[in-house]
Specification:
176 residues, alpha/beta, disordered N terminus
Length: 176
């Protein structure tokens, strides 16, 4: 596996090996939402994901996800909760927000705020990118089931609630 071609936490498997820990991978997401930078997408795969080739996993989409991984330690939290039997093994899809404050507010806002005229609300475009671009990509490339959860960290919380409220297709089992 030379040539620096592996992914984050890449593993070479031997027959009979069971991967004891989770992995975090980058997923090249679909093209950027309208007028926004392309979000970085990190995918959490539970222990044994690569060996359990017939299992399908519930999926949690975490918005403002890079902060959830880096500062919030969500991947370690998922590991601890699943080991304690309080959370099923799942696939986590962590979607980053723009680092520029104005771009971040624009991406996560669906309504114009007179107090912040410089912020152009682009949350609806971001929501379409997630539901019409990223979700189908995840569902076609990873072994996930139809059980979906949507979690918004910090400023992404109101966007998550707006997405679930407006979603006529009822794509999410839970929202946080």
């Amino acid at each position: 596996l030379g040539g620096n071609a592996g992914e984050m936490n890449s593993v070479a498997y031997a027959p009979g090996y069971f991967e004891p820990g989770s992995r975090l991978r980058r997923l090249p997401g679909p093209d950027a939402p309208e007028g926004q930078p392309r979000p970085e997408v990190l995918v959490y795969l539970p222990p044994g994901y690569s060996q359990a080739t017939t299992l399908r996993y519930p999926v949690i989409y975490v918005l403002d996800g890079k902060d959830a991984v880096v500062q919030g330690g969500y991947t370690r939290l998922f590991d601890r909760l699943s080991q304690a039997g309080k959370l099923p093994n799942l696939v986590g899809v962590f979607v980053s927000s723009p680092s520029d404050a104005r771009a971040r507010l624009s991406a996560l806002t669906s309504y114009r705020d007179p107090g912040y005229r410089e912020v152009e609300p682009r949350g609806d475009a971001f929501a379409r990118w997630l539901t019409d671009g990223l979700m189908p990509q995840v569902e076609n490339s990873l072994r996930v089931g139809s059980s979906r959860v949507l979690l918004g960290v910090d400023m992404a919380g109101p966007l998550v609630m707006s997405m679930v409220w407006k979603d006529d297709k009822k794509r999410f089992l839970r929202a946080m």
